[in-house]
């Protein structure tokens, strides 16, 4: 029985790599630095932001970037340029909730980067019951212990959970924790052949197919 569907945020629930690329380059521009190439951003996508930025912009004043990033991040959110969740993805979450599944988020984002999605007025309110991020987990993906707090808080067993994500690191974390994994390939950033097949239960081309995929796992 699948009781919990755990969902990654970036390039799973919403497509964010392109928007994040623009956002980070805007911060760099305000610091008087040249833009990073898209290829560099793609090659480091999925890494923790402040770990990745020295590779994306060598010689960067990381403290100044960290101070300016939240300012620009808020501007992008207010302008509707970031974290836009399509209506069909929300409908997919509704289908999961209606079927009695608990929906939670598990992301590598910092608490600041995810807190707006947990606001009472956000579209995820009533759909997502909890979110796990750098602020309330001791470990980060691909370490399978990233699920420790979620499992301890909810009492769910790994066998009762499925994780939906877009990266090989997501699959590795889930597989190491004994949690089934659905690879969402909608962003086009990753191909299925980049994933370790031992850790992929099934794959979906777009997020709205997640409910069907979960039902298929139950029937298998």
UniProtKB/TrEMBL annotation:
One GO MF term on file is: phosphoglycolate phosphatase activity
GO terms in the biological process aspect are: DNA repair
Give the UniProt entry's GO cellular component terms.
Answer: cytosol
Q: What is this protein called?
A: Phosphoglycolate phosphatase
InterPro entries per the UniProt record, alphabetical:
HAD-like_hydrolase_sf, HAD-like_sf, HAD_2, HAD_sf, PGP-like_dom2
Q: Which domain of life is it from?
A: Bacteria
Q: Which organism is it from?
A: Virgisporangium aurantiacum
Name a Pfam family for this protein. Answer: HAD_2
Q: Which SUPFAM superfamilies match?
A: HAD-like
